[in-house]
Design a protein that fits this description.
mainly alpha
Length: about 200
């Protein structure tokens, strides 16, 4: 989620300086190493310091009695804070960019779409994980349900933003569907032509 926020910010910032493709110069290997390596490092350090902190008597979770749970909540809070700052900066840059665009280009439909994308990014960037922190006291069960339901929709928002609302992806879907529909009538036509050709057999 942090990698997603950084990439989104770099893309919008590079649009501002007319250097869109420089954000794509970051190699995927570095992103994967950071995205998987940093959590792995946090787990390795926390497990090395307090290996008995994993698991409790009544539930399979980090130990909340010794404060070991903050080895998870600490990085989560830090990432939510960083993502919120990056998203705010991204929206400010987009607002400046849109204000400089001709009013005829920036239509009401585009504004609504951008607003929806900004709202969906809150879920994609994991800002809804803040609900997990408030699973305490009498509201714990309600927050647990909200946390589970909202975070279960994260994949749906990723699909909507990166697939359904992405013009390049839609064009590829359209090409794929068109290619399949073209092949189907051609195969039926060739089958009909083959069946209409009279078969010749030699008789002795």
């Amino acid at each position: 989620m942090l990698v997603e926020a950084v990439m989104l910010f770099l893309m919008v910032r590079n649009l501002k300086v007319m250097n869109y493709f420089s954000s794509r110069n970051i190699k995927m290997w570095y992103l994967c190493a950071f995205g998987y390596g940093l959590p792995g490092l946090v787990v390795a350090v926390s497990a090395g310091v307090q290996p008995q902190g994993y698991g409790m008597r009544n539930r399979c979770w980090l130990n909340t009695e010794t404060g070991f749970v903050w080895s998870f909540l600490g990085p989560v809070c830090a990432i939510i804070l960083i993502n919120s700052i990056l998203l705010t900066c991204t929206l400010c840059i987009l607002r400046q960019k849109l204000s400089s665009v001709n009013a005829e280009v920036s239509t009401l439909k585009d504004t609504r779409l951008l607003t929806f994308k900004a709202f969906a990014q809150l879920f994609i960037l994991g800002c809804s994980w803040v609900l997990g922190i408030f699973q305490i006291g009498s509201m714990a069960s309600i927050m647990a349900y909200l946390f589970t339901i909202i975070n279960s929709l994260q994949g749906t928002f990723i699909f909507i933003i990166h697939c359904l609302l992405n013009r390049q992806v839609r064009e590829e879907y359209r090409k794929c569907i068109t290619r399949k529909t073209k092949r189907s009538p051609e195969s039926q036509t060739s089958g009909m032509l083959l069946s209409s050709v009279p078969s010749t057999s030699k008789s002795g």
